[in-house]
Amino acid sequence: MKADVPAPNHFEFEGEQVEINPGDTLASALGRAGCVVQRITRTDEPRGVFCGIGLCHDCLVNVDGRQAQRACMTSAKGVRQVYRHREAAMSEGSKGSLERLAPQPKDAVMAEQGVDLVIIGAGPAGLAAALHAAKSESSLSILLIDERAYGGGQYFKPDLRSSVRSKDQQHRAGDALRAQLAQTHVTHLTGHTVWYAQQEKGGIALGVLSDHGAQLIRPKALILATGAYEQPPMVPGWTLPGVMTVGAAQSMVRSYGMVPGKRVVIAGNGPLGLQLACEMISAGTPPLAIVERANPSRFANIASLASVAWNAPDLALKGMQMHAMVKRAGVEILEGWQLLGCTGNGRVEAATFQPINGTGAERRLALDTLCVGEGFLPQAELARSLGCACDQDGGSGFLVPRRDDQCSTSEPDIWIAGDGGGMGGARAALAEGEIAASQALLWLGTESASTKKAKAKLARSKRFQRALWSIYAAPPRDPASDETVICRCESVSFGQVRKAIAEGASDLGALKRQTRLGMGRCQGRYCSGPAARLLGQPQLFAPQAPARPVPIAALALEKPEWGGHRQSELPRSRLPERDHDDLIDLPTKADLVIIGAGIMGVAAALHASAAGLDTVVIDRSSINGESSGGNAGSLHMQLLSFDYGEKTGGRSEALLQTLPLQRDAIALWQEHERALETSFEIALTGGLMLAEEGGHIEFLKQKVDAERRSGIEVELIDRDAIRAIAPAVSDRMIAGAWCPGEGKINPLIATPALARTAKDNGARFVEGVHVSALSHDRRVYAVETSAGSIVSKHLILAAGGWTGALGAMLGLDLPVHGAPLQMIVTEIAPQLAPCLLAHADRHLTMKQASVGNIIIGGAWSASTDNNTGRSRILRQSIEGNLWVAERVLPELAGLHMLRSWAAMNVDIDGAPMVGPLPGFPGAVVVAGANGYTLGPLLGQVAAQSIINGSLPPAYQRFSPERFA
Fold this sequence. Notes:
Elements: E1 10-13, E2 16-19, H1 26-32, E3 60-63, E4 66-70, E5 81-84, E6 111-120, H2 124-134, E7 142-145, H3 169-182, E8 187-189, E9 193-200, E10 203-210, E11 213-224, E12 228-230, E13 243-245, H4 246-256, E14 264-268, H5 272-282, E15 289-292, H6 302-311, H7 313-328, E16 332-335, E17 337-343, E18 350-355, E19 363-366, E20 369-373, E21 376-378, H8 381-385, E22 390-392, E23 399-401, E24 414-416, H9 425-443, H10 452-471, E25 485-487, E26 492-493, H11 494-502, H12 508-515, H13 528-535, E27 550-551, H14 552-555, E28 589-595, H15 599-610, E29 615-619, H16 627-630, E30 634-635, H17 652-657, H18 659-676, E31 687-691, H19 694-709, E32 715-718, H20 719-725, E33 735-739, E34 743-744, H21 747-760, E35 764-767, E36 771-777, E37 780-785, E38 788-797, H22 803-809, E39 817-828, E40 836-839, E41 845-848, E42 853-857, E43 863-865, E44 870-872, H23 875-888, E45 896-907, E46 913-916, E47 923-927, H24 931-948
Parallel strand pairs: 1-5, 6-7, 6-11, 7-8, 11-24, 13-20, 14-15, 14-20, 15-16, 28-29, 28-38, 29-35, 31-40, 38-47
Antiparallel strand pairs: 1-2, 3-4, 3-5, 9-10, 10-11, 12-21, 17-18, 18-19, 22-23, 25-26, 27-45, 30-34, 31-33, 32-33, 36-37, 37-38, 39-42, 39-45, 40-41, 41-42, 43-44, 46-47
């Protein structure tokens, strides 16, 4: 029998051998070898380890063929080949270049588990909660979930070296907690990511993913102990490799015995930098300097120092000892100084500092590593996804979950312990873990051990923290310069964001659509707060799944399908919160009021204003803010599979009538692009609808014949022709309907460009305004809104799924219904989808954006959320949509899903609706599915109906009078 071959103690990185120490992650092994650059962005910028806890995704590497693995979270054990993750080079990949990232779900069904109590996060709070819950006399099932390989979090991180000096008290305390946990009946899932958290069917549903696959967990009670992450100073050069958080550097030193550089400067705010300096001194590499924004040594802090000593004398003594240790080592301490910026060629090489009070000259220090951190932000994405109420933190601009002294949230079955509910430190987290567990047990009907001591400890900890941060109080930073990066994932600058705001972007969604802010892997964790402060609005991006990028292969599950679009009740309107609601400038009168600033309303405003009409556009959200900005950007010319035949429920003829409109609308899009001299990223790549069995082929033959009779160029092609057009399409696809006139457009560019032109013509857009009433009297329409009243001779209803509700205000029954749909986007991929792809029997559309992401849609249903007034995704639709997509493009199994989103689409009778409202002179309605393709044409027709007083004859069949 063959002896086991020991795993090698090294791996190859870009062809060079890198040694592995016991316990190493790829990040620690690469750092020890001096390899600081991992990810190369799509704009060819280098990135390296930054957060150290798997949030920023800047240390991505390709590991033994698997794409985009986080070096800081991936064990080096057993790894053989590692390469930098080069996003720009992904387009050079070919069929078969992507390795599957996860096993297929067993039996094609998501495993489900019911649990009494789930605790997410195994840091101090999570460990304390699990241990306290385990003391109960009941037989409750308790599950502790953590993304890391070991419990303890950032504070109690283990020492993973095989031979080490005697461990310090912090290491010993962490080891003791882990040992206690191992003696309980708590099930501890390490290396498990919670990618999905929502209320489903009256209970909590958690999507959990590990190397072994995905599962669904349904707890009766939930404790969130997700912790916090460091807030970096956003200065020029902060994205350079070698710039990392203090916590990331501390993990390298404490867990792996590796100082991340030879010339290290620690710059930030708070005592964590002092602790890192002492750990580096003990490791034999003192930092060059500690640059602290506060003045903790000033005499005015004497009262706060006394409070610190009274409430935590051991910590006060430890602080004094650390300060003395740093002094003895000759480390320079600059108090009241701050980082201005850093420079370097491919990595950080120098940094500039300045006294905060403005007196004294700047100093430039040569270095190879810069450790930064200016406070902490709670990891609140799961709490927000589950509906927990939040409040805005005035300093950071981020949202903090609301909780009481019992750790209870606004949701009766959810508690938050530790820094995930606001910073309090490790001791407060330990106490809150016990308190949260006690309350959860009571909810579950089980008595728990007393928490009297924990509450007393928590009170002392809070007093200690207040005094500590009084000592470390520092003034807010000045506004960042325009050239400074705000979104490190997408390399968006403050200047780009300010320009977008100046051009009319009024909320985070508009900023995202115009700049790509927050579209990257970290999902806005760093950029959304600063961007919200620039807007003057207390908001973050709406929480969506996944909470982390996840492998598509783990989630792709076949789901039942249906015909057409699923209608849904409209959510209650919820206006955005603004600092200056009273400053919304709504005119009191106009020639024309258009309700709805999607593509149809914007196109109508463009033509009406060009004709000289004083035009005002009102929207409850923002320009392009709902389905127009949330759609996938397909330019359809042939019918989708569910828009022809039996699945339509008798709508085939109406849908066929729209095809000439779609052809003409695509031509109009091209005309607008030329006239505005602005690229809309229109690419008429053709569209391919794929068949995988004989029945599908027969369906396509009939559909192709009907489409040709409608004047559409389309043909049936065989497998060889499919392979010539789209080589990455699965071999199971044996035939297809090929339509060369189809393609794609970027809605994030196109609609704003038309809106800017309409504004140049004199049209006025009023965003964030809810219409509460409509009336018609004396040939004038009165529009009552949350910002006042406006009267107008003419009115256009262009509010998408909300158009029917507006018609009801006038006493009309317009059969326009909301049908919320959702979309999915992958990470940047090789060229897999050179044309628009669809399936002959499934809900699917797929295309590849110009930057390389694959956008997956196909009318999979979303739901609505009255708490936000928005559409929201459905887990089942994500799973089903991914299954169909992977069936068509098997290499999707080697990619991650970055994000999903939902928007309200429109469902009528298959055909669009455009024309005068019966009985209401001067009023016109415009709505329709496939609205983005048809948008510029139907908007133009609506405006012409106002200008000319009647609907053009060619469009009479689409008039609302057909429903009279």
